Amino acid sequence: MTATKGELRRASLLDAAEHVLVTLGNANATMRNIAAESDVRLGHLQHYFPTRSALMQAVLERVLERFLASMQETTGVAIGVGTEGPITREESGRIFGSMMQQQQEPATVRLYVEIWAMAASDTETAAVLRDFYVQYSHYVEHIVKRAQPEMTANVCRARANAIVTLFEGAAIVGAGFAGLRSAETDIELLNVVQGLMHEPE
């Protein structure tokens, strides 16, 4: 389906917001700078995104959509909430291997880091970020439940949260903020995640 002019403009504004965050950092990710990067007036940007927190929410929603679409494309496993059927150990290995691969992209990790920095001093952005992680964890929870249909909801949720925590920590370590990540570390991380996915309660 062909995107409308408004959808294309919205996507262009989100591209600009991501670019400013990654290249100039949180401190310079003002609405004015993002409008300048898009070559539009501030009022035009505010027509689509009235506040910076609304803009960051849209950025994070698009990051999550892109993340999930890429996982589904690279693994061939339908992973959206509402999909059914068991997930094998081999399939979960492909899913989480894809997640690890995506988190090795410096621009992606830098984007997260800058949004985390923004959330530390902006309660609205912090709320948006919390909602992002709730959604992210919900998708992982659905994958865990498909791997372990008999698992109780509380354990399934706890394991999903643990998996998200492990991957977010690995992203920071792998982004050059600490020199601890290696191919061997990634293998061990995947083994731990596979255990959380497939070992009974």
TrEMBL record:
This is DNA-binding transcriptional regulator, AcrR family. GO terms for molecular function: DNA binding. It comes from Arthrobacter alpinus. InterPro entries: BetI_C (IPR039538), Homeodomain-like_sf (IPR009057), HTH_TetR (IPR001647), Tet_transcr_reg_TetR-rel_C_sf (IPR036271). PROSITE patterns: HTH_TETR_2 (PS50977). Residues 7-67 form the HTH tetR-type domain. Keywords: DNA-binding, Repressor, Transcription, Transcription regulation. Residues 30-49 bind DNA. Signal peptide: none annotated. It holds the Pfam family TetR_C_6.
